[in-house]
């Protein structure tokens, strides 16, 4: 009975994680209509730190090896900083419904890196999942190119799609760092605090030395609420996802979390205007293909 309750709780948490990640895309899309990518990244990272770090400091022991701390910091730079920069930029330029499935292809890059770095094996089932991911991304690329063929050159389209693919690469690198951190004696909750703090400090140092930190007057802007909402959604999505994977079997948690791009499409149709976000049947089919491929690759891995 207790095992069934854990599975049910894990499934609920995984569904919440998927929904929170989907809402993150919608909030970023809304916030970047008039706001800047730099501001929303900084505010969302600040939200992560404010929500995650204090409970981690109060409830968990941070006694870790230097190797585990460095690996968690690497995960923060890769997944929470560089991937977020690319992902939020892509949401602004390409749209939420097209960015989310492409970013979900990170399972492909995680698999390749696991084979190269962690010496894991590649099976025929892996290859089948990889083929599905590549096919889905190709379909989305084709559909977007057809829709924008009057406005953009092929070179501009290639650059446009390079950004979400780069986000997927950085997200694919993140699990390698997490695996190394856990093998070196780290734990998830305090490790997550290190991850978001590293990303926040890194981005603060960069923006402070270049464009400058967001102005305090930003809080009076009408789109500021979308910045906060994106940060809160990301934070609780991370917490729910990590908890789901710890409580429930991976075969239940991962497929539910991977459904996030489908929820992005539904939420886009419900809350975003057709001028801001155009969801086509090709995008829907491509998203399903990528989710299936990513789930296969992740579960087999």
From TrEMBL:
UniProt xrefs under InterPro entries: EamA_dom (IPR000620), EmrE-like (IPR037185)
Q: Which UniProt keywords apply?
A: Membrane, Transmembrane, Transmembrane helix
Q: Name one Pfam family in it.
A: EamA
Asked if the keyword 4Fe-4S belongs to this entry, the reply reads no
Task: Cite a GO CC annotation.
Answer: membrane
Task: Kindly list the residue ranges recorded as spanning the membrane.
Answer: 6-28, 40-60, 66-87, 99-118, 124-145, 157-182, 188-206, 226-245, 251-272, 279-300
Q: Which residues form the EamA domain?
A: 9-141, 163-298
State what protein this is by name.
DMT family transporter
Q: Which organism is it from?
A: Natrialba swarupiae
């Amino acid at each position: 009975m207790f095992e069934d309750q854990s599975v049910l709780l894990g499934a609920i948490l995984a569904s919440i994680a998927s929904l929170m990640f989907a809402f993150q895309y919608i909030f970023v899309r809304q916030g970047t209509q008039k706001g800047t990518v730099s501001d929303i990244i900084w505010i969302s990272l600040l939200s992560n730190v404010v929500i995650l770090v204090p409970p981690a400091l109060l409830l968990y022991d941070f006694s870790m090896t230097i190797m585990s701390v460095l690996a968690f910091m690497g995960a923060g730079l890769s997944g929470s900083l560089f991937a977020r920069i690319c992902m939020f930029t892509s949401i602004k330029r390409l749209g939420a419904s097209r960015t989310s499935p492409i970013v979900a292809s990170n399972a492909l890059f995680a698999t390749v890196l696991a084979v190269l770095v962690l010496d894991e094996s590649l099976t025929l089932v892996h290859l089948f999942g990889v083929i599905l991911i590549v096919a889905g991304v190709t379909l989305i690329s084709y559909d977007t190119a057809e829709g924008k063929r009057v406005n953009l050159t092929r070179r501009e389209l290639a650059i446009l799609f390079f950004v979400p693919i780069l986000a997927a690469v950085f997200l694919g690198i993140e699990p390698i760092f997490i695996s190394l951190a856990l093998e070196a004696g780290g734990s998830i909750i305090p490790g997550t605090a290190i991850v978001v703090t590293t990303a926040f400090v890194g981005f603060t140092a960069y923006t402070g030395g270049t464009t400058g930190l967001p102005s305090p007057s930003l809080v009076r802007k009408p789109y500021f609420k979308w910045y906060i909402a994106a940060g809160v959604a990301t934070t609780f999505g991370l917490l729910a996802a990590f908890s789901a994977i710890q409580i429930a079997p991976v075969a239940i948690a991962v497929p539910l979390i991977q459904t996030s791009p489908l929820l992005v499409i539904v939420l886009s149709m419900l809350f975003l205007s057709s001028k801001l976000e155009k969801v086509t049947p090709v995008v829907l089919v491509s998203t399903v293909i990528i989710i299936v491929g990513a789930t296969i690759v992740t579960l087999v891995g």
